[in-house]
Amino acid sequence: MSGSVTGGSVTGGTFTDGRPPREASGAGAVAISVAAVSKSRGAVRVLDDVSLAAAEGTVTAIVGASGSGKSTLLRCLNGLETFEAGGIAIAGHRLGPGPQPPQALERLRRDVGMVFQQFNLFPQLSTVDNVALAPRLVLGLSAAEARARGLELLERVGLGAHVRALPATLSGGQQQRVAIARALAMRPRVLLFDEPTSALDPAMAAEVTEVIVELARAGQTMVVVTHDHALAGRAASQVVELTAGRVAGRMPAAAGA
Amino acid sequence: MIAQVGGMRRRAVGAIILAAVVAAAAPAAELDTVVARGELVWAADQEGGGPHVFPDPESPDRLTGFEVELADLLATELGVKPRFQQGQWDRLPLLLGRSADCVINGFELTPQRRRDYRCSRPYFAYGLQLVARRDGPVDGFERMASAGARGAWRVGVLTGSAAEIAMRERTDLEVEVIGYDGTIDSLEQLRGGVLDAAVMDDCIFTFYADRFATLRAVGRPFAGGYYTVLTAPDTPRLAAAIDAAIGRLVADGRLKALFDRWDLAGRQQVLMLRDAAEIPAASRRGLADLARETLPLLLTAAGMTVLLSCLAFPLAVAVGLAVAVGRMYGPPAIRGLLTGYVEVLRGTPLLLQLYAIFFLLPKVGLALPAVVAAILGLALNYSAYESEIYRAGLRAVPPGQLEAGLALGLSKWQVVRHVLVPQAVRIVMPPVTSDFIALFKDTSVCSAITVVELTKRYSVLALSTGRIVELAVVTALLYLCMSWPLSLLSRWFERRLEQPADGAAEGGSQ
C-alpha cells in the first residue's frame, strides 16, 4: 500500500483484476468528457489542455505527483473550481469556462457525488443524519425515507452498528466509509474520489479500498484521484497520469480482460 | 433631552452598596470643615431643568436658575464660596457627606426626608400642577376616575418627587403612574402622545409653558408643599447655620427680590414661607414591616428584569446570527449595510439607543410602550455583539464543510442553514452564554426610560424608606438568585448542544 506513484509511470501489470465493467443503463455511453481544459493560478499553469473521456460504469484513476493538478482536475468536474478554457460534459451536464450559475451547479452535483481526502463529515450530525441530510434537503425525501436510505447505505459500507455515532467517535476508515455512503445517498451517476485513502493508515485504507472495489463491481461510474497503487490497480478501468498539468500517459487498463 | 444622556450612569447595585457603605463610614463635613475649606459644596441636577438649576441658554457652560442664586446667597451668609456638584436628581441625597455638603434642588419637605436627613426651614412654596395636551381628552381629575379609550390614563411624574408620591396615593383614579428621570422628559412624552397627562411643580410648567405651547395647565394646583435644603444627619451645626441664613434672607427681603427676579411672585412666597407649619418626621420601619412592604415590590421588579432579559436575548441572538450570516455570505451591498449596522450599534452607548427609541421615535409618529422600547433597545444593542461572536464562529468552521455540503448538491443557503450555522452555534456557546448574563444585568439601564426593573425599584425604595444598606443586600441576593439559575440553564444547554443534533433538529433519527 506504499505505492505512491513517484516517477509518473504506472506499470501495466498492476491492473490485473479481470472483471468486465458491468454495463449500467446506457451501456458504453460516455459519462464524462473533458475537452481541452486549461486553468492557471497566477503564472502557474495548473491544468494545460487536459482531455479525457470515461464511459458509463467505468472507473478512471487519475494519478500523478503532488502538484500535478490531479485534484484540481477532479474539483473542476463538479464545479468546486472554475477553469479558463475548454469544456466538461459530465452525467448529462455541461460546464464551460469561468463561474457557472449556482442553480446549474446544484443540478450537476445531484448527479455527481464527491468523497474527500479529509472525509469532511458534518461533525454535529450522527452518521445516519450525515447520510440522510442531502436526500432530504435536495431530493425532497421525507425524514423517514431519507433515514431508511441512510440505514441501508451504512449497512452496505459495514457501519450498520454505528448509525447513531458522531463522526468524531469513529476511526478514519469508518469515517471515510460514512462519507462514501453519504455521497451514494444521492444515487449519483458519477462519484468522484479525492485521494480517499491518503489520510488513512494501511489497514483503514484497505477497508475503504474494499468498498470502492465493491462499487466498481456494481457498475458505479467513478473518478478516483489517488497515490494508491493497490486502489488504482484493483478498481480502475483506465488510468490517466498527469504531470505538471498535462496528460502524460494513459493506460486503458483491464479494457479487454 | 439628549443632553441628559451624558449625566446618566449605569446603576449597578454594587455601586449603590458602596455608596451606602462609604456614606456610613466617613463623617460628613460639619460647619467648621466647610468654613475652613472656604467652600460650600451644593448638589443639584442641572438636567432637572428650570427654573431651578439649568445651563444658561446664552452660555451653556454656565449654570443659572433661582437655586443657583440661592446657593450663592447661602454660601455668602456662611462666609464661603459656593461650588456646584452635579448628580442625578433622585439620588442627590446619597451624595451628602461624600461629595456634597447640602442638596438644593427642589427637594420637597416630606416626613421621609425629615426622618433620613436634616431638612432646613422652607425656602420655596410649590404647588402640584396637572398638565395635559390642549387637544387631549384630559380636562381634570374627574375624567381620570374611570379608564379612557386606551385603558388606564398614563401620567408622567419625576421619579421620587412629591408629584409621584401624590399620584401613587390617588387610588381613586384609573392611572398608570410612570416615573421619569427628568420633568422635561415627561413633557416631551406628553406632547408626543405617549402620556395622557403629567404632574409637576407649578413653577416648572410656568417656566416651560412657551416651549410646550400645545400643553396646558389643567385647573389650579391641587396640592402643595415646601422645598427644603437637605444636609447630612450628622451635621447639626451646618444645618442650623443654613436655617439661620434662610431666616435672614426671608427677613431682609433678599429672598423676595430673588423670586421676583425669576417671576416667582416673591411677596406671595415670603408670606407662605413665614407661615409654613412644621412637618413631623416619619418613623423608621422595623425590619419585619420593611420586608412585608418592600419584598412584593422587589419581587415584581425582579420579574420585570427576567422578562426583559428573556425576551430581549433570544431576539438579539436571532438578529445577531442573521447579521453574521449576511455579512459572511450575503451580496456585497448587504455586507456593507450590515457592517454599518454593527459598527453603529457597537459604537454608541446602550443608554443613547434606548433614549433614541423611547424619546425620538415618538417624534416620527412611532410611540412604543417603555417595556417594548426596552426590549427592542437591548435586543438591537446586543445583536451587534452577538453577530460578531457568530461571525467568529462561522469562520472557525473548516472550509471543507462548505465544500462537502455544496458537493452534495445543497444550495449555499442550505449549507449555511444546516451545516455551518449549527456548528458555529456550538463553537460560540460559551461567549454567548456569558453575554446573556451581561444583558441580564444591563437591563438596569432601562430604568432610564421609565421601566421599573429591580435596580430602579431598589433605588426608589431605598430612598423612600431610608434602609439603603438592608435593601441593597436583599436586591443583590435577588440578582444572584436569578443569575445563578441562568448560568445553570445555559451550562445545561451547552452540554445538550454537545450531543448529536438528532431528532427534530435534522429530522433524520429518532
Description:
The complex is a heterodimer of chains A (257) and B (510). Chain A is α/β, with parallel strands linked by helices. Chain A contains seven helices and ten strands. A six-stranded mixed β-sheet of chain A has the order 6-7-8-3-9-10, sandwiched between helices. A four-stranded antiparallel β-sheet of chain A has the order 2-1-4-5. In chain A, helix 4 (143-156) packs across helix 5 (172-184). Mean pLDDT of chain A is 86; it is low at 1-26. With 510 residues, chain B is of the alpha/beta class. Chain B folds into three domains: 2-122 and 228-283, Periplasmic binding protein-like II (D-Maltodextrin-Binding Protein, domain 2, 3-Layer(aba) Sandwich), CATH 3.40.190; 125-226, Periplasmic binding protein-like II (D-Maltodextrin-Binding Protein, domain 2, 3-Layer(aba) Sandwich); 288-497, Orthogonal Bundle (MetI-like fold). Chain B has 19 helices and twelve strands. Chain B has helices at 13-25, 31-37, 66-78, 111-116, 162-169, 183-191, 202-208, 236-251, 254-261, 266-274, 287-329, 332-347, 350-360, 370-396, 399-407, 412-427, 429-442, 454-465, 468-497; strands at residues 39-44, 54-55, 63-64, 81-86, 102-103, 118-119, 124-133, 153-158, 175-180, 197-201, 215-227, 230-231. In chain B, the strands form three sheets. Chain B has a five-stranded mixed β-sheet with strand order 4-1-5-12-6. A five-stranded mixed β-sheet of chain B has the order 9-8-10-7-11, sandwiched between helices. In chain B, strand 8, helix 5 (162-169) and strand 9 (175-180) form a beta-alpha-beta unit. Chain B starts with 12 loop residues before the first helix and ends in a 13-residue tail after the last helix. Classes of the chains: A alpha/beta (257), B alpha/beta (510). The interface between A and B is medium-sized, with 37 and 26 residues.
